[in-house]
Amino acid sequence: MPVFIRDAAKTTALVTHLFNHDILATGLNYPVVPQGDQEIRLQVSAEHTGKDLDYLLGVLAGFRC
Predict the structure, then answer these.
(1) 12: CB partners within 8 A, 6+ apart
(2) pLDDT tens, 25-65?
(3) What is the pTM for the complete model shown?
(4) How far from 62 is each of 38, 46, 47, CA to CA, in Å?
(5) CA gap 58, 55 in Å, rounded
(6) Do 18 and 25 touch, CB atoms closer than 8 A?
(7) Can you give the pLDDT at residue 39?
(8) Partners of 3 in the beta sheet?
(9) Residue 12 half-sphere exposure, CB side, CA atoms within 13 Å?
(10) Do residues 21 and 61 touch, judged by C-beta distance below 8 A?
(11) What CA–CA distance (Å, rounded) separates 43 from 8?
């Protein structure tokens, strides 16, 4: 599931923030994606619970850069 950030520094900071909260995400920056299309990718599966997704949303909401 892509989450478009569209900024290299913020993408890197968000990946670090998620990792520090035990969430694995892949950051994609130039040259993997074009400038302005920076994103993170998350793998969501049927094994994730509603509680897992609520935790993710809370961690994302707490991100400040």
Answers:
(1) 27, 29
(2) 999 999 999 999 999 999 999 999 999 999 999 999 999 97
(3) 0.89
(4) 20, 25, 24
(5) 5
(6) yes
(7) 96
(8) 40
(9) 4
(10) no
(11) 20
Both structure tokens of 45:
């599966």
pLDDT given for residue 50 in this prediction: 97
| Three-class DSSP category at 27 | strand
Contact 65/9 with Cβ under 8 angstroms?
Answer: yes
Residues 16, 17, 21, 24, Cα dihedral to 10°: -50
Domains along the sequence of the chain with CATH = 2-61 (3.90.1150.10)
Rounded Cα–Cα distance for residues 61 and 25 (Å)? 15
Joined together, the tokens standing for residue 42 give 């998350």
pLDDT class of 3 with cuts at 50, 70, 90 = very high
What confidence score (pLDDT) does residue 1 get?
Answer: 87
